[in-house]
Amino acid sequence: MDVQVLNKKICKVFETLDDKMYPETTEYIEDWLNFPNEVRDDAYGVFVAFAQSDKPKEWTPEIIHFLEDLLLSEIEEENADAMNDLGAMYYDGNRGFEQSFEKAMKYYNMAAANGNRQAQENLGYCYYYGRDGEVNYEKAFHYFALGAFDGHLI
C-alpha cells in the first residue's frame, strides 16, 4: 500500500478513536504520525501492531474496515501471512470481526497454496472439525501432514 494512502487511512482511524478506550492503539498512531519523514510502507507491520494493541477490547467498525483493507492490500502483493491472518480474523470472529468459516477457509487456502505452514495447519483443523459443513479426516490429515513433513510439528 502506498505510504501516503496508508497515512490517510491511519489519520481517518485516529479521528474516530477514544484514547481512553484504546490507549495503546492511540499511542501507536501518534508515534506513526509524529515521524512523517520516515519511510513507512509496511502495511502488514501496521496490521500486526493494531492486532496486538488494546487486547481484548472490541474494535470499532472503522478499525475493522481499516485492518481488512490493510490485509487485502497485502494479499494483492501475495503476502501469505496476510492471507492466513485475514482467514484467522474470519475464523475467530473476535474483537467485533465477522465470523465466517467460509471466508476463513478461502483465505487459508490461498495462504496454504503459497506455502504458509500455519494456514495448512488451520485448514487441517477446519476439515477435522467440519468447518465447511462436513468432517473430512482425509483432507485434515493431508493439511496437517504438509506442515509436519516440513518441520511444522504443532
Layout of secondary structure:
Elements: H1 3-16, H2 23-34, H3 43-52, H4 61-76, H5 80-92, H6 101-113, H7 117-128, H8 137-148
Helix pairs in contact: 1-2, 1-4, 3-4, 4-5, 5-6, 6-7, 7-8
Outline of this structure?
The chain is mostly helical. Helices cover 66% and strands 0% of the residues.
Structural class: mainly alpha
Number of strands: 0
Unreliable parts: none
- The N- to C-terminal Cα distance equals 33 Å
- Largest β-sheet summary: none
Strand content: under 5%
Shape: elongated
Helicity level: 55-70%
Tally of individual helices: 8
Mean pLDDT: 87
SSE order, one letter for each helix or strand: HHHHHHHH
Q: Write down the Rg.
A: 17 Å
How would you describe this structure to a colleague?
The protein is mainly alpha-helical and 154 residues long. 66% of the residues lie in helices and 0% in strands. The protein contains eight helices and no strands. Helix 1 packs antiparallel against helix 2, helix 4 packs antiparallel against helix 5 and helix 7 packs antiparallel against helix 8. It starts with a helix and ends in a 6-residue tail after the last helix. The model has no long low-confidence stretch (mean pLDDT 87).
Keywords summarizing the entry:
elongated; 8 helices; mainly alpha
